[in-house]
């Protein structure tokens, strides 16, 4: 049921304030500044025992995993990384007893991710799921998990499930952090920020018509860059992925820091860049990169915060509300969903069912 929306993707983007409410409901503990995640089936002692986190997923879920890995490193100070489950399962991975494996999947049926889980379990590892569909194959195969409660997602391009994946990682990071060195006050800081998020998302969605204008311009380019660094890099990857999936434009994500080591050679008037420029400790470095792109004739659209001072740089901006720095990627991603949606809309493509893609890939 489209409920009056022209596409499922539009509906699912607009549902995000409510779906975010659902994933945090009943899970935020103000007394101890922690997340209550009973479904993980891990005792505080077990949570303390992990010295590494490895996140596995495919496509957009893999990029959400990258967002999650950075959050876990920042909040819990445990080495964490994300890997494409489709690669992991084929490379005879080394499974360690003190690593917490996290499988992330909207459908819970993606075969590459399901096989990665199987491989971990076969070799005696501990794996929990961050899954949307209750009772799905991956949810059942894991030792425990956190359901995303995003509600049914129909459009091939994942939006609300992805946002809840990132929030699910914030909850796991809180649980891992609070049995380590993360203070109650810092835990509370994240909890308060999570509670404010549905309202902040609403305010980004209200910017839809303005974002649609930018999208129309970008849709005419045959090729574009999405750049971000550290927290912003998985945001850029997800932005490029969405653009590719539904607008059929060549969109390439790059670490902003790596531009000068090669891809800057491609920049000209025909190759625009979407730059993730948050107000954080890397703002000046990001602005310097924007300046370098502009100096080579490249158009830039910045996804940024109010406080960022672009000075003389003449750059159109999409401004998102500031949250706690560790959570910035969640809000920075939302305008990129709208950008891809409106680009595909202006090009007249089948938004909910892009060519060559399936909602979940369940066969080899
Ligand atoms: C891909 C879909 O094949 O599977 C992507 O086209 C999706 O949109 C990916 O992100 C992973 O799916 P899931 O269900 O495991 O999150």
From TrEMBL:
Active site: 359
Signal peptide: none
Keywords on record: Aminotransferase, Cytoplasm, Glutamine amidotransferase, Repeat, Transferase
Subcellular location: Cytoplasm
Catalytic activity, reaction form: D-fructose 6-phosphate + L-glutamine = D-glucosamine 6-phosphate + L-glutamate
Source superkingdom: Bacteria
Function recorded in the entry: Catalyzes the first step in hexosamine metabolism, converting fructose-6P into glucosamine-6P using glutamine as a nitrogen source.
Protein name as catalogued: Glutamine--fructose-6-phosphate aminotransferase [isomerizing]
Organism whose genome encodes this protein: Amycolatopsis eburnea
Lineage: Bacteria, Bacillati, Actinomycetota, Actinomycetes, Pseudonocardiales
């Amino acid at each position: 049921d489209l409920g009056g929306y022209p596409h499922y993707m539009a509906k699912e983007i607009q549902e995000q304030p409510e779906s975010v409410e659902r994933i945090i409901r009943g899970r935020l503990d103000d007394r101890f500044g922690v997340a209550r995640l009973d479904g993980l089936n891990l005792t505080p002692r077990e949570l303390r025992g992990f010295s590494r986190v490895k996140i596995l997923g495919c496509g957009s879920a893999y990029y959400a995993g990258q967002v999650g890995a950075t959050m876990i490193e920042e909040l819990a100070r445990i080495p964490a990384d994300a890997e494409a489950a489709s690669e992991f399962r084929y490379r005879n991975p080394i499974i360690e007893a003190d690593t917490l494996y996290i499988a992330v999947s909207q459908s819970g049926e993606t075969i590459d991710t399901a096989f990665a889980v199987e491989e971990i379990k076969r070799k005696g590892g501990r794996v929990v799921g961050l899954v949307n569909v209750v009772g799905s194959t991956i949810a059942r195969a894991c030792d425990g998990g956190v359901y995303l409660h995003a509600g049914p997602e129909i459009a091939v391009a994942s939006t609300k499930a992805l946002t809840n994946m990132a929030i699910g990682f914030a909850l796991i990071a809180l649980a891992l952090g609070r049995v380590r060195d993360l203070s109650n006050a810092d835990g509370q800081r994240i909890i308060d920020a999570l509670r404010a998020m549905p309202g902040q998302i609403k305010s980004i969605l209200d910017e839809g018509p303005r974002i649609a204008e930018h999208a129309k311009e970008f849709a005419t380019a045959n090729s574009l860059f999405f750049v971000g660094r550290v927290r912003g890099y998985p945001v850029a990857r997800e932005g490029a992925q969405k653009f590719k999936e539904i607008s059929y434009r060549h969109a390439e994500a790059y670490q902003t820091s790596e531009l000068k080591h090669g891809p800057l050679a491609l920049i000209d008037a025909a190759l625009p860049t979407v730059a993730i420029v948050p107000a954080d400790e890397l703002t000046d470095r990001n602005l310097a990169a924007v300046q370098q792109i502009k100096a080579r004739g490249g158009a830039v659209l910045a996804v940024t915060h109010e406080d960022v001072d672009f000075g003389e740089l003449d750059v159109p901006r999409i401004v998102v509300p500031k949250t706690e720095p560790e959570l910035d990627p969640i809000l920075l991603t939302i305008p990129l969903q709208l950008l891809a949606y409106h680009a595909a809309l202006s090009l007249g493509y089948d938004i909910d069912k892009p060519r060559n893609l399936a909602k979940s890939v369940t066969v080899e």
